């Protein structure tokens, strides 16, 4: 099972999926190799799909961040099909996924899926139910980011973040592992 978040500007649709880099979503995309890289948000949805929203309360805060189109959340998702402006509505649907049978391998789809049910009903920023849930969980609707005192460190970290997002996660980790082994091997030859 997979929980798929969608966004729309009208409650009647059309609905568009938010795509994640490392979890099933679009049936036409295969999954990239992730290990030993651990995409935490994508991996967190593994627990969500086998649970209920009442046990996964962070989903409400995630929905609010999607509704506000926050850049910190956008950076955790795939850039494909991401709205440029904040959507009016988001929802989450539970799907059951299966690999496409080998007999249908000439089909372009890697997966087949069907809807199992609603996980999070359509909601908006002004939705009373969403606001009540967030208030009960003591999650602020708006939060102030404290001012940065060390701008040099901030700029350096942003530069590193922007450079590392250009490389796929597992390739990035394997590059560092290979570099580490190369350093160890060259140091042993000197001894």
Automatic annotation (TrEMBL):
InterPro entries noted in UniProt: LMF, LMF1/2_C
Lipase maturation factor 1/2 C-terminal domain boundaries: 1-121
GO process annotations (BP): protein maturation
Keyword line: Glycoprotein, Membrane, Transmembrane, Transmembrane helix
Q: Which Pfam families match?
A: LMF1_C
Enumerate the transmembrane spans: 166-185
Q: Which GO terms describe its cellular component?
A: endoplasmic reticulum membrane
Q: Does the keyword Cell inner membrane apply?
A: no
Q: Which PANTHER family match?
A: LIPASE MATURATION FACTOR, LIPASE MATURATION FACTOR 2
This protein is called Lipase maturation factor 2
The record lists the organism as: Lutzomyia longipalpis (Sand fly)
